[in-house]
Amino acid sequence: MRTRRRVHRPETPVDTQAVRARLLRRREELQSRASSASADLRHESDPLSADFAEQVTQRESDEVLGAITESAREELRQIQAALRRLEAGTYGICIVCGEPIEAGRLAAVPYADCCRACADGQRGGPRRAG
To answer: How far apart are CA 103 and CA 101, in angstroms?
Structure first.
Protein backbone atom coordinates (compact mmCIF):
# COMPACT_ATOMS: atom_id res chain seq x y z
CA MET A 1 0.00 0.00 0.00
CA ARG A 2 1.41 3.37 -1.00
CA THR A 3 1.35 6.15 1.52
CA ARG A 4 0.49 9.61 0.34
CA ARG A 5 2.71 12.32 1.58
CA ARG A 6 1.10 15.52 2.64
CA VAL A 7 1.68 18.43 0.29
CA HIS A 8 2.10 21.80 1.96
CA ARG A 9 1.53 25.06 0.17
CA PRO A 10 4.27 27.69 0.28
CA GLU A 11 3.71 30.36 2.92
CA THR A 12 4.58 33.13 0.48
CA PRO A 13 2.74 33.02 -2.83
CA VAL A 14 4.85 32.46 -5.91
CA ASP A 15 4.62 34.98 -8.74
CA THR A 16 4.00 32.31 -11.36
CA GLN A 17 4.10 34.74 -14.29
CA ALA A 18 7.53 36.05 -13.26
CA VAL A 19 8.84 32.53 -12.66
CA ARG A 20 7.47 31.32 -16.00
CA ALA A 21 9.05 34.29 -17.81
CA ARG A 22 12.40 33.65 -16.12
CA LEU A 23 12.31 29.94 -16.96
CA LEU A 24 11.36 30.65 -20.58
CA ARG A 25 14.20 33.18 -20.95
CA ARG A 26 16.67 30.69 -19.52
CA ARG A 27 15.31 27.98 -21.81
CA GLU A 28 15.94 30.21 -24.84
CA GLU A 29 19.50 30.96 -23.69
CA LEU A 30 20.24 27.27 -23.19
CA GLN A 31 18.74 26.24 -26.52
CA SER A 32 20.91 28.83 -28.23
CA ARG A 33 24.02 27.70 -26.32
CA ALA A 34 23.39 24.03 -27.09
CA SER A 35 22.82 24.77 -30.78
CA SER A 36 25.97 26.86 -30.99
CA ALA A 37 28.10 24.26 -29.20
CA SER A 38 26.69 21.44 -31.34
CA ALA A 39 27.42 23.41 -34.51
CA ASP A 40 31.01 23.98 -33.39
CA LEU A 41 31.66 20.31 -32.64
CA ARG A 42 33.98 18.62 -35.09
CA HIS A 43 32.01 15.83 -36.71
CA GLU A 44 33.36 12.28 -36.92
CA SER A 45 33.66 12.64 -40.69
CA ASP A 46 35.77 15.81 -40.38
CA PRO A 47 39.45 14.92 -40.62
CA LEU A 48 41.77 15.74 -37.75
CA SER A 49 44.71 17.99 -38.39
CA ALA A 50 47.95 16.30 -39.45
CA ASP A 51 49.73 18.16 -36.63
CA PHE A 52 49.63 16.14 -33.38
CA ALA A 53 49.44 19.24 -31.15
CA GLU A 54 46.53 20.55 -33.21
CA GLN A 55 44.79 17.15 -32.90
CA VAL A 56 45.06 17.37 -29.11
CA THR A 57 43.54 20.86 -29.19
CA GLN A 58 40.73 19.72 -31.51
CA ARG A 59 39.88 16.73 -29.30
CA GLU A 60 39.94 18.83 -26.12
CA SER A 61 37.71 21.40 -27.78
CA ASP A 62 35.28 18.65 -28.81
CA GLU A 63 35.18 17.32 -25.24
CA VAL A 64 34.46 20.77 -23.80
CA LEU A 65 31.77 21.50 -26.40
CA GLY A 66 30.20 18.10 -25.77
CA ALA A 67 30.12 18.76 -22.03
CA ILE A 68 28.57 22.20 -22.58
CA THR A 69 25.90 20.68 -24.81
CA GLU A 70 25.08 17.91 -22.33
CA SER A 71 24.97 20.36 -19.41
CA ALA A 72 22.59 22.62 -21.34
CA ARG A 73 20.37 19.66 -22.23
CA GLU A 74 20.17 18.55 -18.58
CA GLU A 75 19.25 22.05 -17.42
CA LEU A 76 16.64 22.21 -20.21
CA ARG A 77 15.08 18.98 -18.89
CA GLN A 78 14.93 20.52 -15.40
CA ILE A 79 13.36 23.71 -16.75
CA GLN A 80 10.71 21.73 -18.65
CA ALA A 81 9.88 19.84 -15.45
CA ALA A 82 9.60 23.14 -13.53
CA LEU A 83 7.24 24.52 -16.19
CA ARG A 84 5.09 21.39 -15.83
CA ARG A 85 5.03 21.87 -12.03
CA LEU A 86 3.93 25.48 -12.57
CA GLU A 87 1.06 24.28 -14.76
CA ALA A 88 0.10 21.61 -12.21
CA GLY A 89 0.19 24.06 -9.31
CA THR A 90 2.94 22.16 -7.50
CA TYR A 91 5.82 24.54 -8.21
CA GLY A 92 7.74 25.38 -5.05
CA ILE A 93 6.77 22.14 -3.30
CA CYS A 94 9.51 19.57 -2.60
CA ILE A 95 8.91 16.40 -4.61
CA VAL A 96 10.55 14.33 -1.87
CA CYS A 97 8.94 15.50 1.39
CA GLY A 98 6.08 17.75 0.23
CA GLU A 99 7.33 20.75 2.22
CA PRO A 100 7.72 24.20 0.64
CA ILE A 101 11.05 24.86 -1.07
CA GLU A 102 12.86 27.82 0.46
CA ALA A 103 12.25 31.10 -1.40
CA GLY A 104 15.99 31.82 -1.53
CA ARG A 105 16.63 28.43 -3.11
CA LEU A 106 13.98 29.04 -5.76
CA ALA A 107 15.40 32.51 -6.43
CA ALA A 108 18.85 30.99 -6.99
CA VAL A 109 17.70 27.83 -8.80
CA PRO A 110 14.20 28.46 -10.19
CA TYR A 111 13.89 24.87 -11.43
CA ALA A 112 14.74 23.34 -8.03
CA ASP A 113 12.42 20.43 -7.33
CA CYS A 114 13.34 19.72 -3.72
CA CYS A 115 14.07 21.63 -0.55
CA ARG A 116 17.61 22.08 0.79
CA ALA A 117 17.21 19.37 3.44
CA CYS A 118 16.15 16.77 0.86
CA ALA A 119 18.79 17.92 -1.63
CA ASP A 120 21.42 17.41 1.07
CA GLY A 121 19.98 14.01 1.99
CA GLN A 122 19.08 15.11 5.52
CA ARG A 123 15.58 13.63 5.40
CA GLY A 124 16.65 10.10 4.66
CA GLY A 125 16.23 10.36 0.90
CA PRO A 126 19.05 10.20 -1.62
CA ARG A 127 21.15 13.28 -2.27
CA ARG A 128 19.68 15.21 -5.17
CA ALA A 129 21.28 17.75 -7.47
CA GLY A 130 18.12 19.78 -8.18
So the answer is: 6
> Average pLDDT for residues 75-104, to the nearest whole number?
95
Domain boundaries, the chain: 16-90, 92-130
- Taking only the tens place, the pLDDT of each residue in 51-89 is 777 777 777 877 887 788 888 899 999 999 999 999 999
Q: Which helix (H) or strand (E) holds 17?
A: helix 16-40
Q: What does the alpha-carbon distance between residue 63 and residue 100 come to, in Å, rounded to a whole number?
A: 38
Cα end-to-end distance, the chain, whole Å: 28
Nearest to 71 by CA among 101, 97, 33: 33
Residue 14: name the closest of 115, 81, 86 by CA.
86
